[in-house]
Amino acid sequence: MSDVKKVVLAYSGGLDTSVIVKWLQETYGCEVVTFTADIGQGEEVEPARTKAQALGVKEIYIEDLREEFVRDYVYPMFRANTIYEGEYLLGTSIARPLIARRLIEIANDTGADAISHGATGKGNDQVRFELGAYALKPGVKVIAPWREWDLNSREKLMAYCEQHEIPVDFSTKKKKSPYSMDANLLHISYEGGNLEDPWAEAEEDMWRWSVSPEAAPEQPTYVELTYEQGDIVAIDGQPMKPHEVLEKLNKLGGDNGIGRLDIVENRYVGMKSRGCYETPGGTIMLRAHRAIESLTLDREEAHLKDELMPKYAEVIYNGYWWSPERRMLQAAIDETQKSVNGVVRMKLYKGSATVVGRKSEQSLFDESIATFEDDAGAYDQKDAEGFIKLNALRLRIAAGKGRKQD
Amino acid sequence: MSDVKKVVLAYSGGLDTSVIVKWLQETYGCEVVTFTADIGQGEEVEPARTKAQALGVKEIYIEDLREEFVRDYVYPMFRANTIYEGEYLLGTSIARPLIARRLIEIANDTGADAISHGATGKGNDQVRFELGAYALKPGVKVIAPWREWDLNSREKLMAYCEQHEIPVDFSTKKKKSPYSMDANLLHISYEGGNLEDPWAEAEEDMWRWSVSPEAAPEQPTYVELTYEQGDIVAIDGQPMKPHEVLEKLNKLGGDNGIGRLDIVENRYVGMKSRGCYETPGGTIMLRAHRAIESLTLDREEAHLKDELMPKYAEVIYNGYWWSPERRMLQAAIDETQKSVNGVVRMKLYKGSATVVGRKSEQSLFDESIATFEDDAGAYDQKDAEGFIKLNALRLRIAAGKGRKQD
Amino acid sequence: MSDVKKVVLAYSGGLDTSVIVKWLQETYGCEVVTFTADIGQGEEVEPARTKAQALGVKEIYIEDLREEFVRDYVYPMFRANTIYEGEYLLGTSIARPLIARRLIEIANDTGADAISHGATGKGNDQVRFELGAYALKPGVKVIAPWREWDLNSREKLMAYCEQHEIPVDFSTKKKKSPYSMDANLLHISYEGGNLEDPWAEAEEDMWRWSVSPEAAPEQPTYVELTYEQGDIVAIDGQPMKPHEVLEKLNKLGGDNGIGRLDIVENRYVGMKSRGCYETPGGTIMLRAHRAIESLTLDREEAHLKDELMPKYAEVIYNGYWWSPERRMLQAAIDETQKSVNGVVRMKLYKGSATVVGRKSEQSLFDESIATFEDDAGAYDQKDAEGFIKLNALRLRIAAGKGRKQD
Amino acid sequence: MSDVKKVVLAYSGGLDTSVIVKWLQETYGCEVVTFTADIGQGEEVEPARTKAQALGVKEIYIEDLREEFVRDYVYPMFRANTIYEGEYLLGTSIARPLIARRLIEIANDTGADAISHGATGKGNDQVRFELGAYALKPGVKVIAPWREWDLNSREKLMAYCEQHEIPVDFSTKKKKSPYSMDANLLHISYEGGNLEDPWAEAEEDMWRWSVSPEAAPEQPTYVELTYEQGDIVAIDGQPMKPHEVLEKLNKLGGDNGIGRLDIVENRYVGMKSRGCYETPGGTIMLRAHRAIESLTLDREEAHLKDELMPKYAEVIYNGYWWSPERRMLQAAIDETQKSVNGVVRMKLYKGSATVVGRKSEQSLFDESIATFEDDAGAYDQKDAEGFIKLNALRLRIAAGKGRKQD
User: Which label site among C214, C290, C362, D138 has the fewest CB atoms less than 10 Å from its CB?
Assistant: First the structure.
């Protein structure tokens, strides 16, 4: 194991990754570079510096990636109305490619030959980190301590800390939670604990980002979202950067009890797992984006997008952001968004985000044709007969030849 | 126009179709058979008998098709988690094939050579009725008065009534509504009026089947749905027939402000239209069905279902229920539902239908593998390395040969 | 019918479209502009000028569009390995959007308010011309004489000619043929005559562009095709323009009996029809393109292309070249072609075009990994175990829980 | 390694698997059961008995599975017109699920707790065997010697034989071939040797099942294939069992130089490999099946089949025959084949299999409508106008609102 000289670690500053720093140094006898990013997880990242220094780390990267995260990953994904398995907004999945890319870029900058992460061997995140790393630097060595070491219980981890004088006071907050959690600007997730029984309802005090619908205000909140080329650029007429948009919508959504989700999902590694998610802003964005598209997209491109979406969601969920198939799908999706401009008006109320209005200068809604009133000849109802007759022709021929139709 | 001898009309008992009875008799000099069905639209159908008799109709069919409607059309559609354009639950679309089939069967029984309906030339329903009719009886003559006559305003219709002594007191209720409405056990729809401006919020007094979320009870309602082969067979342990299930869920959903929808959709005839829908029971069913599938479906069949769903929805929306492509898709869908058994627990509260638990004897969720705790060797984390390495191989080779990956 | 002032006609110079010139002048009392294009149909286009003049046409457009046709339509289509219904290379379909575009551009240039064509009311070409025209100039008036007039037999046409002093000596060659034919650089097609019986073998003397395999040379011909970004840019090392490439391959293919096809296809208007086609160059191009892609495309983008291809083929066949869905698909396809560079070596022999070699500087084929010999550690066979184990996990869990697997 | 008591080995009787018998006995100290099947590979299977006995095997299974192979695997696959990556007829892939199933059934019959095979760690076959095994018997132990041992060269294998007194005279024929080959009734494959250079043309003496097109007869052979529900049941009117059909077509095809293929394909394990294949009968069957479908399938079900086919091919290629997704796709495919009955006439000549006629009592080809002659009103050409107008409506609205269409 002596062939690794320097490794870049995705470092949260928490207990687990602190142990990993030490373990890498010991096991591989290599230098460790730490990389800590603010992607909106809601915790200070700067304290990671002192902790890393205390562990003897010399090269420490601490970065605010919130804008880049939303602009280059979350926004492109939402252009596709992406949902995994009909429910999940991919909050964890979409953060991994950015981390993978920065890990590799830092490896290149610091001359590191390996990267490492704190994801377990049962989950999707290891796959996402590593597929990204291999795609961007094919010769990189990946070290996944959870798949290698035998520190597979909290007791062993604590013993390791004691033995190696790693201060255990950090991350006490997390220690108290019975759930495995992950957060970024798009969502916070919960797994484990009593959630491992899919019949058990999540406990109210688990949720952190939203009030319960019951506790939300009695009065609805209305909000107007302005779209340019499929992306939100302003809220209530106020121009904002992508991550500001999401922060604002998280606040609005969370205050109104919006975005809680409780599902059983299929992991890429082959098992089902139960997870709870809070995605307040994303839940609003998904419905609003469909609404602005309903006015501005052509029917056939909209339907084709819907047919491609499950595949696109799967690609992201499974960790193939940095792949030719993702780029190919993105090219198709982005091609459709040029005219997706306008404003959507949403009503937020006790858990629901409802579209109540939409308008656009690029609207393809034609009142003169759609009207129930006299349309002054804009549409010739007689055309419908030929339309139906020829669409029915293949069915009529088949039935005429005795082919069973029911 | 003398070649039509007898025509079967889809007759609601309302003003429009009453005018059509007379118009058909006059214009085609033919006998009219009326067909009125209770598919859960919430109005008495029996009064249609007297009205038809008053118009000189001799063969009058009045039928309760609620059970058949839900069992043979709504339920199979929900097995696919069917949604059109990401939002619409196809409440109108799914009722048409049943009406088309009965029209043709009655035509066969009564020796009629034509069928007729009251749908306009701008909408999807004419297509759905007629595609079904042609598929089931290829030589049938279809008469669509709205595409033929010049009674294209309410004034002209009223004048026609007066001239032909058609009593206009019926359907006074509908006359007052500014909306074009359609209802069956699955939903009620609203179009026209001020909805023709997609920016205008629907007025509260438009909605008929649900209270507003604001007016819904302060306490949530919990309900347990039992599935067999993808269909709900019991509510809170109480066995029910399909239409009883939907009636019950409509009541529960409506009482809790669930199932309102306000969208712009793409019609098959080529225009966008704005519609509002109330689908209380269906909204609950959709989420619940996904939840029971999340436990009982294999990942790949679930994903394949999701990829096929938009096509299946389009087939139904466009009116191709009676087609080989619908049967082909249905065969694939139904093949997956054999083990979709179990119970889903839902929370209904002020507009939201939320899954809070699911269980099944056919569950594929394996706690011993999914657990965050020690799994006693049920899953070997080291397998993940090979899994990732080979999945990454194509990406690594490409990157190694200088292929750009970002 | 007096509201048409000027109409641009797709004019071949043949009998039918000459009659149409006169019929338009008479029926609509409007000026006729003729448009005749050389798209490689193998007939002189210049004679159309005199004929048009003789019919009183003042604005006559005669253009050589061969290069544009292959570069902007045929080549993009072949990037997708496009085949309709598993067999048909879309030779007729792909020429229509170009004609439609020029008709509209000429209408704009000449101030015409209508366009016209000589396609019948039973075929796909009317749809393709008209969808293109409406998409590019939504207010245009389209006149389709074959759907309007009663000159629906050759006798009536001849009588019309005599009556209006249209010289009938032109197109005598076509008159003798029992087949309806259409040709451009990509193919020549045959319909009608004894082909209307799908069991009857096409007669040898029907085929015009290729010798029979039996009559082809006893020695194979080898040819090397150089690709850049998915398009052929050189043959046997000789740089050529797109239309020169196709002309050359038509010659090589035709000489070797390559590219004959005899199928029953499904028309967009709802009927089946039997057609025979000669596509010598296209048949070579299709196989060669797949071969260069086999070296240079990533697996997943290649598979995704294959999944999208039938839809793309349908879009073109049905006449939706000028549509958002075609642009969306094209964006995805073109995204994949950046590295599709290299050389393919083909063997042409008595009806077969066989790939015998392919090479590329962007090749993703890695001999060091693929080899059956010792690979010096490039690939760790032990990775396969984890790969298989995790891919099998969902199946094992299901089987372990008693789920039937066969 | 002492926990394996009995292992069922897929035993060819050749050198490699004979070594495996001994190696399993030695390494695992377990009893070995051999299973040798005739699936049409063209070699006697009975000699495997003596060889196995000589190696001390007590339970020896030798079976003729040709009929089952073609009836239950090859035929269902051909109903989908299955091709992998546009070229490959899946000859190797489709034989694996049958072998996997028999291995597991024999394991169950003999009380074995493990299965073993002679596939390498680089290929697809290991995946196919093992996915099948795990799906059918989730607790089975799989032993893949090529991934475990260090006998990774022919020299080491020979040394092992000498050391363990394994007679090396068998399989001398194969030893001489520079290619890795695999054969069954559907095809014979070649990999390795000079094929590892994708630019190198395969040598003529490599091919074993077909004459070269150059050496094929100067006179074409005609053959008529009778279909019932998508499967061939008779050749030239002579009823035959499935495997007899394929044997006969292999003979006819091979004699006429039909079915050679030379491709670079993407393996599931992530690398590209070059392979040559001879699939004489399959090549004829593929074209013939499309031809009978062209007459008897509805357009939309045919198109949907084409859209699903690449996925279905991938499922089989990757080894997921025994999976819910394959069953789901098969249900859809088989649903379409009920009326796929009739006769196809093929011309076989020097490498080409050409369809020259097709007929069916379930034909949906309607001469009275398709005809270029007077159709006596079967089709109203005026219907086409409405059909086009409404299909164009969305494009016209978009263009009318200034949306760019080119």
Answer: C214
Report how far residue C68's alpha carbon sits from residue C95's, in angstroms, rounded to the nearest whole number: 11
Choices 3.30.70.1450, 3.30.110.70, 3.90.1260.10, 3.40.50.880: CATH for C182-297+340-359? 3.90.1260.10
In the structure, what pLDDT confidence band is assigned to residue B173 with cuts at 50, 70 and 90?
very low
Question: Which of B303, B349, B366 lies closest to A310 in CB terms?
Answer: B303
Record the pTM. Answer: 0.97
B133 and B115 Cβ atoms separated by less than 8 Å = yes
DSSP letters of A218-249?
A: SS-EEEEEEEETTEEEEETTEE--HHHHHHHH
Q: Mind listing the pLDDT tens digit for each residue in B245-268?
A: 999 999 999 999 999 999 999 999
Q: Enumerate the domain spans of chain B.
A: 6-66+90-176, 182-297+340-359
The pLDDT, as a whole number, for residue D173 is: 43
Task: Provide the pLDDT for residue A404.
Answer: 83
Cα dihedral sign, B95-B101-B106-B111: positive
Q: Which helix (H) or strand (E) segment is C326 a member of? A: helix C324-335
- Our measurement of the distance from residue C36's CA atom to the centroid of its chain's CA atoms, rounded to an integer in Å, reads 19
Distance (Å, whole) CA D156 – CA B326: 59
- The mean of the pLDDT values for chain C is 95
Number of A/D CB contacts below 8 angstroms equals 74
Spatial separation of the C-alpha atoms in residues C90 and C263, rounded to whole Å: 12
D271 at A interface, C-beta within 8 A: no
- Position C307 confidence tier, pLDDT thresholds 50, 70, 90: very high
C383 to B403: CB separation less than 8 angstroms, yes or no: no
Instruction: Enumerate residues 6+ apart whose C-beta is below 8 A from D403.
Output: A339, A362, A364
Distance CA A373, CA A153 (A): 71
Write the pLDDT tens digit of every residue in B272-285.
Answer: 999 999 999 999 99
Secondary structure (H, E, C), A18-34: HHHHHHHHHHHCCEEEE
The C-alpha torsion from C394 through C396 and C402 to D1, rounded to 10°, is -160
The Cα C232–Cα C292 span in angstroms is 10
pLDDT at A2 over 80: no
A398 in reach of chain D (CB within 8 A): yes
Joined tokens for residue C238: 């000789």
- The vertex-A44 CA angle with A39 and A46, nearest 5°, equals 100
Task: Answer yes or no: do C350 and D213 touch at CB < 8 A.
Answer: yes
Residues 313-332 of D with CB under 8 A from C: 314, 322-324
Domain C6-66+90-176 belongs to what topology? Rossmann fold (3.40.50)
Q: Say whether D304 and B397 touch across the interface (CB within 8 A).
A: no
CA distance B5 to D290: 44
CATH topology agreement for domains D6-66+90-176 and D182-297+340-359? no
Structure tokens at B137: 């009886």
Q: What is the pLDDT of residues A18-29, one digit of tens each?
A: 999 999 999 999
| Residue B234 · residue B342 · CB < 8 Å | no
C-alpha closest to that of D134 among D110, D106, D103, D111: D103
C125 among known catalytic residues: yes
Among residues D181, D241, B144, D349, which one has the least CA distance to residue C352? D349
Q: Which residues in chain D have Cβ-Cβ distances shorter than 8 Å to C79?
A: none
Nearest to D322 by CA among B262, C396, C153: C396
Q: Do C370 and D302 touch (CB under 8 A)?
A: no
3-state secondary structure of D32: strand
Model pLDDT for residues A142-167, shown as the tens digit of each residue: 999 999 998 978 888 889 999 998 87
Helix, strand, coil fractions of chain B, as percent rounded to 5: 45, 20, 35
